[in-house]
Automatic annotation (TrEMBL):
Keywords: Cytoplasm, Hydrolase, Leucine-rich repeat, Manganese, Membrane, Metal-binding, Nucleus, Phosphoprotein, Protein phosphatase, Repeat. It comes from Cynoglossus semilaevis (Tongue sole). CDD domains: PP2Cc (cd00143). GO terms for molecular function: metal ion binding; protein serine/threonine phosphatase activity. This is PH domain leucine-rich repeat-containing protein phosphatase 2. It comes from the Eukaryota. Residues 1044-1113, 1136-1159 are annotated as: Disordered. SMART domains: LRR_BAC, LRR_TYP, PP2Cc.
Amino acid sequence: MKRNGNRSCVTRKTRFGSREREWLKGDTQRGCLCLYGGTVDPQPPTPGPQSSSTPQTDLQLVLCSTSTTVEELCAQRNGHGLYVQLHGDLIRRLDPSERPLQILYDYLTTMGYADPVRVQQEAANADLSCLIRFYSGESRCMFLLLGRTLLKGVFSVRKGKTQLHKWAERKVILCGTCLIVASVKDSLTGKLHILPLVGGKVEEVKRRQHCLMFSSAGSQAQTYFVIFDTLTNYQRWYRQASKVVSQTVSVVDLSCYSLEAVPEYLFYCQDITHLNLRHNFMSLQGPGGLLNLPKFSQLKSLNLSHNRLGVFPQCVCEILTLTELNLACNNIHIVPEQIGSLQSLQTLALDGNHLSSLPAELGGLSQLNSLGLSFNNFSHIPAVLERLESPMDKLAMAGNRVKSLELCTLARMTNLKNIDLRLNELQRVNSESLEVVGQVTQLDLRDNYLDSLDLSSMCNLETLHCQRNKLGKLTLSGFTLRMLHASSNRLTAVCVYPVPNQLTHMDLSQNLLEYLPDWVCDCRKIEVMDIAHNLLSELPSRLVNSMSLRKLLAGNNRLLKVPDLLDHVPLEALDLQHNKLTELPESLFYKALNLKFLNASANDLKSIPLSSQSEESLGTLQELYLTGNNLNEDCGAVVVGHQSLRVLHLAYNQMTSFPASKLSKLEHLEELNLSGNKLKAIPSTVSSCKRLHTLIAHSNNISVFPEILNLPEIKLVDLSCNELTEIQLPDSLPSTLQELDLTCNKNLVLEHKTLNLFSHITTLKLDQKSTMAARDTPSDSLPWNHGYSEMSGQRNKLCVSVLTVDHFGDKMEACYGIFDGDRNEEVPRLLQCTMGDVLCEELQHSSVDNVYMCNTFLTSHRKLGMAGQKLGASALLCYIHRKPSDPGGHFSLTVANVGTCQAVLCRNGRPVPLSKIYSLENCTEEMGRVKRSKAIITEDNKVSGVTCCSRLLGCSYLSPGVLPKPWVHTEPLSSQDEFLILGNRALFEWVSYQEAVCTVQAVRDPRAAAKKLGSLAQSYGCKDNIGAVVVLLRVGEDSCTCEPSFSTTEPRGPTPVSVPVSVTQGPFDPGSLSSSSGVVSEFNSETSASEIGSEAGSTASDEHQSSGSASRLEKRCNLHPAATLCLFQRQPSSATFSSNQSDNGLDSDDEAPPEGVISNGSKLEVEVDIHCCAFQLRSGSPDSPKDIDHERRSFHHSNGKMCGQNNVVVSATNGCLLAVCGREISDLKKFPSASNLFVKKLSNGSVVAPEDSHNIIEVALEAPKKKSGYFTAPAQQDPEDQLIVPPCLEQEVREQLKGQNSLVTGCSAASTAPFLKEPVWDHPHPPTFHSSLVPGPGPAQILQQEVYDTAL
């Protein structure tokens, strides 16, 4: 161990002992620093246990404080320097005065950790290295070359053309436009030689086999000879390097190399015109410093953005040939006067700095036409721009602090054409001056605080963006107006004079317009008009009959009628959804012959017009959406007249049939949605639609599987929530079929042959049939049940995952979540499989909702590892629980979210939003925080052009602009709360909160309701992934099912005096989490292994019944749990077979496999979707069939803790059921948390228990085999060896029990549960008390006490 003065800096190779741990606990400003590095030379012998002559390991643990500097750490370790790497990206050398531990603590605090003790603990976590990592030793700057590497390998290398140099084995990399040769074999440590190849030569060396000569350009060219080991490598390198050297433009791209200096060889290349040094750590001094850049005499473009320079490098002002200079994001505060010497400069980018003024010399740049000043600290437009003589194409000043805009100032800037003032603090645009602003053609005022806007003085304005302000009135000049974007305001009037005859695009959506102004109808060139989400009650006839209008979006208004078409119009797209229409114009289809898209969903249509006046239609309609109307089966004959249809949505109408003879005419049909009708069958003529790839017909009365499996392009079939009984299949299924949903068909019976045919389907969703009676369904035992829906839309992959756990932990709790990866599926799947477990772990450390929820998100963010560096996901987690201080009280709902996933609670029929939308457009404070972090927000309102969310799990490379800290809110639940809706951005973007609530109220079945929400969103126009979870709540007094207590004191047998002792029904494993994403499975999660075993034919102890005094248990509900009453009886002498000692719960070889479990020959699968698994894991079970029956009667008798469940994981081996329980479950749970999500998603959507690297098949194959009717079980305990309390010791036992734990209500979990905050027993293995009658004096007082099994 080494110590460094009074800094208390300790270095240790392996792990710390008690001394070091005590030192850490003494002060939260102390901590552990993990230093990574390659093998270095051994240190000289020094006194102390750390002295060693062997090389140090790659990872070293260093104890230090937040005041310890890099210089002190290096001196203590005899090191060369320290480097820091963020998010697996760039590696930066730390200055000697920087403090590494303080950097680490600041990073964790910025992430969201608030507790100093937790920060100290997280800093020592090895998983944190994917977010922030410290390196020691020599330069690590070339670690990141691998991401840009074209070719690499270890070959014989010789430098120079003379024979004086020797050949040596070196690592060679062809990266970007450079050849990199390491000075150490097979390693990137040491000095790295960089040879630029652009303009150089690659030649074959004929004197040596497989040898190439690489030369750079210029008079001081360097040469390297490389001998390759094989002909293949030789040809590959020659071909690739030839492409690099043949580039005609002298461009050198060294961006993202973690460079501190420009390679010296580049200064001899006189032809370089473009040099990109973006995202490095360039220094001014040194041989390759920026002070040497003027050596590039032909340089025209220089990019030095994101280099942490801190000052403007004045040396670049000496490069007089520069036409483009980028110094964005460099913490620059002042621009020097020397900038005026760059007379050839045309583009200057100074975005993302701390500038508040510009030098007067900048006005002398006669060629400047583009100036970027976005995301600085300007409070007004710099006056120096008035001196510019050249016409400026664009002035970008987004994200500054401009509060007022004077139009007279713009009038004096006679050369300014395009101004970007979005994301400022504009509250007023002063137009009192009569000066005409004639030069400005484009103006962007998005995301400000304007309440009125008068730009009538801008007579040449062509494009205006003013979305997301507070505008009530807008006045413009229409002389040259071409595009107007004014959505998301409060507009009631828009005045444009004169009539804008050049206007082609106009967006006035999401305003308060009650009528359209007259000038709109006079626009001669209007092509696209969006007036959706207003208060319009009618559309002008002249607008609909316009001869230029091609796209009209008028949905979500109050339209009662659409004007008739008087003549043929060029209309191509018409959106009329969410209005009050009862009919469409009769001439719509044969007057608008170019109409290709029509959406009239969510109206009150009872019929639709004919496609033509004759039998033959000339229309070109391709997409027709009529969901949510009152159409009957008569509309089918009309619809098929549009023979060019590709997409047809007729969901949630009143159709009882579809004309079979007509459907065959839709030969081009690709997508058909008939969900939510009253159809009894899909016409067999659907087989004529050869291009059909999607059929959605859930929530009908279909009993016969349609003839669609012969279609060559079929991909998705959803027939859930129907009345299917059997499926007639062809000999082979189409290879294109990717998803088949047959859930909620209660009468459907699938043969093994059918299931084998389905084995290749990527996502197969089936019901798991319950083995329990209807009276034991989950809805009767829990105050909630749920349904889910996931739809991929028009994307090829599903990037949404949901988490649903009805039984969370050992208490009456639940956990639900939804994760949206936008365009990636990896992060949502990782969160689905880990986040529930993380929440269980965090609940052991804190009971404060804001603390454990926040830490759950931050820990999940860390656990994403390398996947979370570049990818991210929105996440929402809902946790239903009782207060720890009041375990028998009311339920509460704690919601936490990042990103755009949302939760809505229905209370008294009204939506109550519980989440916060973390997007830049919806959250003003988040917009301000991102701006303060100097992150660049692009014109589409995305952080660095990547995501519109300011908070995500993952995407750590966008930190601190994007953070993982969640919004946390706790809402007490009451009897007025009906259900909870969870959805991603795509769902609530198209379905409002109120409509979502009304939809679920009308359906009530959570599975069908979730399906309907997804179908509605798709019919309204959503093309993205959709995820929805519906949770029905019954947590009020109305759901109470308690019965009066019937207690009798008269025993059935001899009257004993009982000892006040309680028993538990069996230890409950905290890992009983189901990570399923829905409730598709009908296999009851309350089914225990003992129940399966007894009901499947176990006869070992069926006749055994306990005799003696017993009290009838009072039937209680989960809302009012009562203590479980059980007398302490003497153990009978006859042996009792305990089903918790059986490995599978089956007793004979002729048992049939359960429904839903598939055996494909030797391949074993559980064909249940990841969202369907209701199975849970548990290690204990009742001891006898009597206890089994007792479990069923007293299932509700728990106080926030689930008892009476022996959870199983089911697989199949040659048609036999395996129940993995007992020790097998303990083997499955070798993780830090015992509350694991025991699922793993297979390629076909199945669920398995994720053992370290095993699936359910491997676990099942390792289970014991049957022997003589029963599985081999552990040796059973002899009844004579079980603990019997003699009468003389009863009083002593009573006193001991009272002293240890009294009145433990409900069924307690086993003492081995890791999440019990305080152990009930001090002894690690307390004895087992079996139910028996023990005489004793005194009245019988009933107490609750833990009972443990001592059988080995």
